[in-house]
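Record type: monomer structure entry
Structure origin: computed from sequence
Chain ID: A
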Amino acid sequence: MNTNTLTRAGSPAAAHEACARCDVFRAARLRKLGVKVDRWDYVVALAGNPNTGKSTVFNALTGLRQHTGNWPGKTVTRAEGGFEYDGRRYKLVDLPGTYSLLSTSVDEQIARDFILFGQPDVTVIVADATRLERNLNLVLQVLEITPRVVLCVNLVDEARRHGLEVDARQLARDLGVPVVLTAARRGQGLAELLGAIADVATGRVACRPHRLATDPPALQPALKELTAKVETAFPGLPNARWVALRLLAGDESIIEAVRRGELGQLREPAPVAPTDQPAARQPAIVAP
């Protein structure tokens, strides 16, 4: 890819910088992804590996307020639902179960594009407590794209039967995002999960995710240079380093997003508490 494309793409982005920060752009991107948000205060994405109990979490949070369809232009099923918490309405979008976000399959591309371009207010990652180390691969990839994450460590009841205990507080410190332990099929931990989602969505908790920087030495000069170009072309982009990595990997969907200037519409908006509620206290910070 010719990196001069970044400069050309940045011009229209700069011209629309003020508008790009408003909800209109994000709502348009979500509609393009097949999600309507006109009656909802917040959008929550539900991600995770297959067989982690993600669907059980989805059903427990949404109850009967859900429907299914296909992702636009795909044969992959999309499930959506909603719930109310503390007087606010949350739309929950169940992403396809994936092991990574490297866009090597349709499911991975759908999940990655929704988190990147849909910019949900919160991304909940459901992990299996009995196979936590394996599940952390996806967690770290999501954290490269967005800091607004809640880790839901599910199936803790099964883990305990195998003599395993998860230290949620230590894991939250290590990752820099809230961690909630659940046994969704028993209804355990769901109240805490709802509270964590609301805290991140409203900005009461500010996540400071830990991102690994283990790039090969031979790659580091090119990555540093390209990251700087991305940051210059798209000021305010919350994941410039990740975008640079995907460009170096030849990711066609990211290259097209650069050429079309779509990345210029992606900003990390400051979460604002609804005006009809009392002013939020100083945000707590989850930091590694």
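Annotation 1: The first strand starts at residue 42 and ends at 48.
Annotation 2: DSSP finds twelve helices and nine strands in the chain.
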